[in-house]
Amino acid sequence: MSVLPCLAQIPESPAAAVLFYLFAAISVASAIGVVATRNIVRTALCLLFALVGVAGLYFLLHAEFLAAVQLVVYAGGTLILIVFGVMLTSKSPFSRFQPKTIEVVVALIIGAVLLTALVAAIVQTRFADKPPVAGADLEYPVRHLGELLLGQYLLPFELASVLLLVVMIGAAYLAKARRREPEVAKEAALNEAALSQTARKWS
Amino acid sequence: MTILPSIAFVIDPKPSALFQTSILQALGIDPANAWAQMGFSLVVAGGFFLPAVLLMVMLFIWWERKVAGHIQSRLGPTRVGPIGILQSLADGVKLLVKEDLCPKDADALLFRLAPYIAFAPVFAAFLAIPFGPDLTFEPRLSAGLFWILAILSVEVMGVILAGWASNNKWSVYGAMREACQMVSYEIPLGISIIVAVMSAGTLNMVRLGHLQSGGLHTWLMFRNPFVFLAFFTYFIASLASNKRAPFDLPESESELVAGFHTEYSGLRWSFLFFAEYAAMFVVGGIQAALFLGGWNDPFGLIGRYYHEYTLSGNTTGLIVVNLIGAATFTLKALLIVFVQMWLRWTLPRPRIDQVLYACVKVLLPLSCALLLGAAVWQLLIPELYGVPWFAYNPWRWQSWSGADAVGALVTQITLGLVGLTLVGLIMMWILYAIASGRGHKQRLTDPDPFPLEVEVAKA
Q1: Which residue among B143, B154, B172 places its CB closest to the CB of A76?
Q2: What are the chain B neighbours of A141 within 8 Å (beta carbons)?
Q3: Neighbour-count burial of B123, counting CB atoms closer than 10 A to its CB (0-12 exposed, 13-18 middle, 19+ buried)
Q4: Model confidence at A28, in pLDDT bands (50, 70, 90)?
Q5: What is the ipTM score, two decimals?
Q6: Averaged over A149-163, what is the pLDDT?
Q7: More confident site: A122 or B105
């Protein structure tokens, strides 16, 4: 059972096993759905179910904070922004995703490399037989997590937040740079012309 | 000036043992059996929570129409049942037999799925709502508050999909407004919650309840002035994230027909409504649990008797205390819901740019300032959080000065008095409105109080 160690050691109780297989089935089926659907919004929906399934798995591992983060960041934030972007940009409501052959090849190569890396990592990792933390720490993991983030791992944490800030400023700059001064003036002139035309028509 | 270390809390959230064990024992089943526990959870979720939430939502819809009626000097529903209380049931029957339409050009799969995606997360949020010390579905959830917020943000996905899949421009406008409004108001909402959580030091809903069990002045809202203000920013942001008026732009009927649910009919339409009204209760519940002391009464009696009965092992007493606590909690949440309804029928609707302006340029800086202030306050005024209130009398000056927390007591008493004054003023206002209002509402069958002939003659 060294290839699939996670299957060998899941259930603490039969009830948890049932839930594990339920959530695993949801996430795998909808992950396949993400790849198989061409409609972008439907893809987003499948992704939602995949994320919710993984959040359920986190729950079974008593990592509630991680499950909630998964939901709030990916399901509640990223996915909504994807759908929002589709709504703003697509011409038809059922815009389909049509990849070129070269894109499919590149995607296949990247997928194969990632899969190999993941399988290798899973095979090589030695999974613990028991939950690593027992007793009081398990009772209150959020506090533990916060202390780690703001203590031992403060520097990477702050670096990540600086990165996010840079991304935000860049996005704001790009959004603003698209409307340059002459364009704005031209637009205003056009608006004014249209207005005066309307006024003439009405008078 | 010393900063008190958080005193280890005596009552730890137990795995909802009280009700589960007593009911399973009464049925003659071994309470330690994992299958029995899972079955019990399923029965509670499907057989109690789901019907209770649906019933509550139906009651809310009737209540909203009553409130709207009385605010607009009408009577609201009166015909079905006493004071029209069965109106929602009649509406439900009507919606059940209505045809379930799906537009020809809509994305049928998404269109049919979206109402459930909107409702399921709101229902899942009830997992962590603390109705009582032992009446929480999952009291061990160490990130309960965060979980509710996270799952409520998934609800938006259902609304957006509903609008998008309808393939109707009004629906898409509604969905887009919902998306940008929700994504931006989530930030002040979260920050306001952090302000309160900072003075509590926990995200577990049951712990939050126990922390505030020492009477009115130990409720988080009255712990420090920044949490007091965060109460209001949270309320405004929660209105917006719930798409309640004055932020009901996703469904503004005067511009977008009905926004994201223009194309819906029958049961699916009612599921979208179930989601909205259940989310109102959830948001009100968070506010009650986080700022208003959860299941505790203003005198700290529930916390005290809960502790006493836990020590003496009085199961009947514990069940009674829990039920009283649940009633108190529900009452507080209902009060918040009432204010939401009251605002809906009082305030006009702003434009979408005004809504976003209010979020990004007013509410967001305000909540950030509150966060900063709350952080500094924690350093300046030592606070007794995590204190088991039953161990000493929180109303006695000596206990506080002994623990070097006089500043905290002064703050709490001042803020408590401010809060009581506010509530008193609002109550007096309502009483004045009731006393000075017309007791008799005009009906069409009544004679015209301003007959046309008389008015014409006067003119």
Answers
A1: B154
A2: 142
A3: buried
A4: very high
A5: 0.76
A6: 89
A7: A122
The CA angle A71-A74-A80, to the nearest 5 degrees, is 110
Rounded Cα distance, B102 and B112, in Å? 8
The answer to whether the CB of B107 falls within 8 A of the CB of B172 is no
Q: What is the pTM of this model?
A: 0.81
* Minimal Cβ distance to B153: which of A16, A18, A76: A76
Confidence at residue A130, expressed as pLDDT on a 0 to 100 scale = 59
| CB contact at 8 A, B20 and B139 | no
Q: Per-residue DSSP letters for B46-107?
A: IIIIHHHHHHHHHHHHHHHHHHHHHHTTS----SSSGGGTTHHHHHHHHHHHS-----TTS-
Cis peptide before B246 (omega within 30 of 0): yes
A145 is written with which tokens? 């997590």
Does the pLDDT value for residue B38 go beyond 90? no
Q: What are all long-range contacts of B397-405, with beta carbons under 8 Å and residues at least 24 apart?
A: B403/B4, B404/B2, B404/B4, B405/B4
Q: Is the pLDDT of residue A166 over 90?
A: yes
Q: Would the pLDDT of B234 be above 90?
A: yes
| B183·A77 Cβ contact <8 A | yes
* Among B35, B151, B165, beta carbon nearest to A71: B151
| pLDDT at A12 (0 to 100) | 58
Mutate which of A84, A91, A138 to test chain B, going by most B C-beta atoms within 10 A? A84
Size of interface A-B (CB pairs under 8 A): 104
CA distance B298 to chain A (A): 29
Best of B12, B33, B153 to substitute, by most chain A Cβ atoms within 10 angstroms, is B153
**How many CA atoms, within 13 angstroms, populate the side-chain half-sphere of residue B145?**
29
| B12, B110, B155, B157, best to mutate vs chain A, most A CBs in 10 Å | B157
